[in-house]
Specification:
It contains two helices and no strands. Helix 1 runs antiparallel to helix 2. It has about 80 residues and is mainly α. About 0% of the residues are buried.
């Protein structure tokens, strides 16, 4: 893969910059959710430290649910955007 394939698209208007920023934030939140799950698994499973798993997983699930909603909203917004 070339570096051009991973380049952030150049946005010329403030609205386009907002779309790019929100898209990256959406991806970053998925990475954070994955990191939280890995941390909980390592601490509870490998280190044997007792954690309030139900509460922690509920918080992570809430973050995932809100991120799903943001993803659906982004897809709908991109689908309804007029073509140039």
């Amino acid at each position: 893969m070339s570096s051009a394939e991973h380049a952030v698209p150049v946005a010329s208007t403030p609205l386009e910059r907002t779309k790019v920023n929100l898209s990256w934030l959406h991806k970053l939140r998925w990475a954070a959710i994955g990191g939280q799950l890995i941390t909980i698994a390592v601490v509870a499973g490998l280190m044997g430290i007792e954690l309030p798993l139900a509460r922690l997983l509920a918080i992570v699930a809430l973050a995932a649910a809100t991120n799903v909603c943001v993803g659906v909203w982004l897809q709908r917004r991109n689908a309804s955007a007029p073509l140039r």
